[in-house]
Amino acid sequence: MIFFMVVDGDFAKEKIHQQKIDETLFVRIGNDDKDALEELYLFTQRAVSALVLSILKDPYATQDIVQDTYLKVRSAAHLYIPQGKPLAWIFTIAKNLAFSYLRQNSKMISNEEMPDNDLRYSCVTDTTDRLVLKTALDILDDSERQIIFLHLISGITHREIAASLELPISTVLSRYHRALKKLKKHLTDKEA
Amino acid sequence: MQNIKKQLNSAFDELPCASFDVIANTNVCKMQQHDSITAQPSRRKINIPRINKLALAFAAVAIIVGTVMYNNLAVDNIITIDVNPSFEITTNKSDHVLLVKALNDDAQSVLAGKKFKGWELDDAIETLFTDMGKTNFITQQKNTVLLSVSNKDTKRTKSIEHRIAAKIESAFAGTDIKPHIVAQALTKDKLNQEEALQNHVSSGKMQVVHKVRANNSQYSIEQLATMP
């Protein structure tokens, strides 16, 4: 079992529900139980999407990889051995698929900053929201981005992030604070 | 922070989302065994007699506890910083902060409410100096920093001095403050430590006081300790 936070889609309401993933969900998913799949998807989709976006920096590729992650979970759920870390397993699948995507598309992906008018982010209507998201994707390094996205977007606790990414809690904390400081400074400089 | 969180979430909410219907209604083949994508970390079982298991477990625990204690709890570096305020920072082998001690009232006011235990040394240094800049303990005029590092390994002492100096400079990047950093290797000396404690300065500063007195004894230790 694992504890983690699911942030409600309507962020303004600030409703954060503490939930736990029941590992028997995988047995049910392995038996093609659609309700179990939906339960797992609702619990974890935001965290998985945040993680994949932090790796790929492309919302459309993220959508595809998240979809593939759950299809992989469906095809391997009956093989899952309970180890007390269900979220870590889903994260492993998502990360493996994301890195495989990056390897296959390495020639097409550049590490340069995304231009301000990057069309991939045109779906974000508010310019300030778009700027904050793109800044986070541009200036933070891979590990900082993962930690910031998992904590601020998915509401996962630092301790859970440490367990899922196999990092010491002190490293997660100091990278989180450093990333937040970097983000604030960059946004303040841009404003000025 | 709240704004960043809110804006990040608002932006994220508008991004395209994987469709549950597609996930639920796409035909998938059940895998016969895990592949490289879905593999879970293995938990192999080795057949070992019970008594050996206990001995192995005990030895493993002793080794793990010993290593963890040595790496995480044992003091590896003692770093003192005098601006003034004066601080003493102790870190472990992996350069994580064990303790930041305020050595005078000014340092106490900078530290108020902050806990650096477990932080990476670089982040703690950058935060401390950013805060000292904000509170005007370091300005364009008052820009001298005495940095003293004590470590058994002289190579490591030098590398830590360079790292900290770079972090101090980066804390003031983009401002008019150009810190003037005087670095020295700090030698462990009990008497020196006691005198430093009595005069509310760091042992690094007390080491400088003694060096000055060796060349010119017209000033007392107390007089030199209070000089900026």
How is this structure best summarized?
With 192 residues, chain A is mainly alpha-helical. In chain A, 64% of the residues lie in helices and 6% in strands. Chain B is built from nine helices and five strands; from the N terminus they run αααβββααβαβααα.
Describe the structure.
- The complex is a heterodimer of chains A (192) and B (228).
- Chain A has 192 residues and is mostly helical.
- A two-stranded antiparallel sheet of chain A has the order 1-2.
- In chain A, strand 1 and strand 2 form a beta hairpin.
- In chain A, helix 2 crosses helix 6 and helix 7 packs across helix 8.
- The longest helix of chain A has 23 residues.
- Chain B is α+β, with helices and mostly antiparallel strands and 228 residues long.
- In chain B, strands 3-2-1-4-5 form a five-stranded mixed sheet, with helices on both faces.
- In chain B, helix 5 crosses helix 6 and helix 7 crosses helix 8.
- The longest helix of chain B has 24 residues.
- Chain B starts with a helix and ends with a helix.
- The model of chain B has no long low-confidence stretch (mean pLDDT 85).
- At the A-B interface, helix 2, helix 3, helix 4, helix 5 and helix 6 of A face helix 1, helix 2 and helix 5 of B.
